């Protein structure tokens, strides 16, 4: 063990500048080209089959192509009644693409897929700067072949931009180790600030690891390192705060209501429903569950994270999304930190492990114990860290394979991966039943060869390494290909083959429900396309509104936001809109109860009040089986 530690800590182990000056091996460029080409094929293949993916965000993207104000604020409708319940950074990218190329599935989703390719390239380059080309390629491959990554880089949720910006920040922190730390740490802060504008507080989960690396590994005195950290913090605050200030200072009566908030404030949304409420429950989030039967509160079930606790990332909800290589990554992290415990303060390998390992551990702990809403696809945030730790760990341990300790850790990583992947594959026993046995037996055989002394096999050592990679990545790669080949829509997509607890098309894009029925009503669509009001129609909740917007290209007011519980518009505001002729129709039948949170008004909120008022003052008509009220013809 001591000999291995000395090998890893030796001066020849960390010479990034020398590596950068030395000629790149001839195999690197073709290998990197293959990695990025395969990633592009995986993430772009059959992308149009996804349809609108998540209709909730697709409707907001469409609105952004019709109204610059809707694009700026992330409105779900071009009439600018209410925003989606996230900041708009991800919508900016997709809507601008739609304005340039025309709004459609491909113009919306191709930027997301390209973010995935860019993330793989950046993970490769970040790991390569410290641990070499092979480690970088392995890290990028693990990210590309993670099922939840293939799922979400082909989807229109904000997670794609979030992950890309967090990886950009990680790259900047690693660059700060080489020189000019003030510049690179400031750029890392800017990247995290804009990641905040993609998905709020989730972007900050990586900052403890980044701060630790700056304080421990950046050259210079402690006061200089603290100054660098302060610069990064200021850059983060400015790059996120400008938009918070803009929303706060903009007159509230001339912008859309901030969906998901209780007081029309983006800051309250960040700290409440989409922030601390996700961690501790409350603020529109259901409470956590500690039993094995279901997930948080009344939402329950695997689609809302399952039961909280240390095993959550390995459970029915999260396991097949992200945990294929998670046990191996944790083993590699512990071993790497142990072997480098006596390294100099500025040791780059240890710094890299602290960065990616800290990212991994903090995110796993928060995701495992958060009591609010926790969807399985959130775990894409773990994929870059798992890939990087695997790449760094395998490279360092393989370099020391002549030592028993190194071979033991490598063998343990491979066997644990084989056993765990067998368990994960057994959750879908009818899908490729031979694969789980192949992975299990193969991992045991290769690990036995490693333990026996693969370093003595000469040219056959390369074959052993290739076999280890094949059995180690085989299961996650197969699951990723199945994800790409399938059709994963709805508000809560899941990867891999169909499962009894998966495919819950929550709200938008899901099976059944008023939203889907109304959007398929040709008579209703014809009626709406003839309306030239600010809002062709209004309906409670976003389920029907978004689907109809996409089907007709018109602006539909979603009363109460996503689930109908937000306090916008009030009854008085709605009456003013109707009196001014700004809303033509009211579509009944999609009230609260199907959304994320009941909102401040509950059953007596604006959705219920407006529905009752409309029914009292207007006459219902049947339009293709949908109950519709013409608000231009009062009784």
UniProtKB/TrEMBL annotation:
Keyword Glycosyltransferase: yes
Domain of life of the organism encoding this protein: Bacteria
Topology within the bilayer: Multi-pass membrane protein
Sequence ranges assigned to domain Glycosyltransferase RgtA/B/C/D-like in this UniProt record: 85-240
GO molecular function: pentosyltransferase activity
Localisation: Cell membrane
Transmembrane segments: 27-46, 100-124, 136-154, 160-177, 184-201, 207-224, 231-250, 322-339, 351-370, 376-397, 404-423, 435-453, 460-479
Feature: compositional bias, Gly residues: 590-605
Biological processes, Gene Ontology terms: lipopolysaccharide biosynthetic process; response to iron(III) ion
Boundaries of every Putative mannosyltransferase YkcA/B-like C-terminal domain copy: 530-617
GO cellular component: plasma membrane
Region (Disordered): 589-608
PANTHER family: MANNOSYLTRANSFERASE YKCB-RELATED, UNDECAPRENYL PHOSPHATE-ALPHA-4-AMINO-4-DEOXY-L-ARABINOSE ARABINOSYL TRANSFERASE
Listed name of the protein: Glycosyl transferase
Natural source organism: Mycolicibacterium aromaticivorans JS19b1 = JCM 16368
């Amino acid at each position: 063990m001591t000999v291995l530690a000395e090998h890893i800590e030796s001066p020849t182990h960390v010479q990034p500048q020398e590596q950068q000056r030395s000629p790149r091996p001839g195999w690197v460029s073709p290998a990197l080209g293959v990695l990025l080409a395969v990633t592009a094929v995986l993430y772009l293949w059959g992308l149009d089959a996804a349809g609108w993916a998540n209709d909730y965000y697709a409707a907001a993207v469409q609105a952004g192509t019709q109204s610059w104000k809707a694009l700026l604020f992330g409105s779900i409708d071009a009439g600018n009644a209410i925003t989606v319940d996230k900041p708009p950074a991800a919508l900016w990218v997709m809507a601008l693409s739609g304005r340039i190329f025309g709004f459609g599935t491909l113009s919306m989703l191709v930027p997301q897929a390209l973010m995935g390719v860019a993330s793989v390239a950046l993970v490769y380059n970040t790991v390569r700067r410290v641990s070499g080309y092979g480690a970088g390629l392995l890290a990028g491959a693990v990210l590309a072949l993670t099922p939840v990554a293939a799922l979400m880089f082909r989807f229109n949720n904000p997670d794609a931009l979030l992950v890309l910006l967090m990886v950009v920040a990680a790259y900047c922190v690693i660059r700060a180790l080489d020189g000019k730390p003030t510049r690179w740490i400031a750029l890392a802060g800017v990247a995290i600030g804009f990641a905040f504008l993609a998905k709020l507080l989730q972007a900050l989960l990586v900052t403890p690891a980044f701060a630790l690396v700056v304080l421990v590994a950046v050259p210079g005195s402690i006061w200089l390192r603290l100054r660098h950290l302060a610069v990064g913090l200021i850059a983060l605050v400015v790059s996120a705060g400008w938009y918070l200030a803009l929303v706060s200072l903009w007159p509230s009566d001339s912008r859309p209501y901030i969906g998901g908030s209780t007081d029309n404030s983006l800051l309250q949304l960040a700290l409440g429903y989409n922030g601390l409420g996700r961690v501790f429950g409350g603020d529109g989030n259901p409470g956590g569950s500690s039993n094995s039967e279901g997930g948080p509160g009344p939402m329950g079930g695997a689609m809302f994270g399952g039961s909280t606790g240390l095993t959550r990332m390995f459970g029915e909800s999260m396991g097949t999304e992200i945990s294929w290589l998670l046990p191996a990554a944790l083993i590699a992290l512990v071993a790497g930190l142990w072997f480098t415990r006596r390294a100099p303060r500025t040791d780059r390998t240890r710094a890299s492990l602290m960065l990616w390992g800290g990212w991994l551990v903090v995110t796993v702990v928060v995701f495992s114990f958060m009591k609010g809403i926790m969807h399985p696809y959130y775990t894409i945030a773990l994929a870059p860290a798992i890939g990087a730790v695997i790449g760094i760990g395998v490279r360092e341990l393989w370099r020391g394979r002549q030592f028993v300790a190194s071979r033991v850790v490598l063998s343990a990583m491979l066997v644990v991966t084989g056993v765990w992947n067998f368990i994960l594959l057994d959750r879908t026993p009818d899908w490729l039943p031979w694969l789980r046995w192949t992975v299990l037996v193969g991992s045991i055989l290769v690990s036995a060869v490693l333990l026996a002394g693969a370093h003595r096999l000469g040219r056959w050592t390369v074959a052993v390494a290739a076999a280890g990679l094949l059995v180690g990545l085989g299961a996650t790669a197969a699951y990723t290909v199945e994800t790409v080949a399938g059709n994963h829509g709805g508000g809560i997509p899941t990867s891999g083959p169909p499962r009894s607890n998966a495919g819950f098309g929550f709200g938008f894009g899901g099976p059944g429900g008023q939203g889907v029925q109304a959007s398929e009503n040709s008579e209703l669509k014809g009626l709406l396309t003839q309306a030239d009001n600010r809002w062709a129609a209004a309906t409670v909740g976003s389920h029907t509104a978004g689907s109809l917007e996409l089907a007709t290209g018109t602006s539909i007011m979603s009363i109460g936001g996503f689930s109908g519980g937000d306090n916008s518009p009030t009854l008085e505001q709605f009456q003013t809109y109707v009196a001014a002729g700004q809303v033509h129709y009211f579509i009944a039948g999609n009230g609260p109860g199907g959304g994320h949170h009941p909102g401040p008004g509950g059953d007596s909120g604006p959705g219920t009040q407006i529905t009752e008022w409309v029914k009292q003052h207007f006459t219902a008509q049947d339009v293709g089986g949908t109950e519709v009220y013409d608000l231009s013809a009062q009784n």
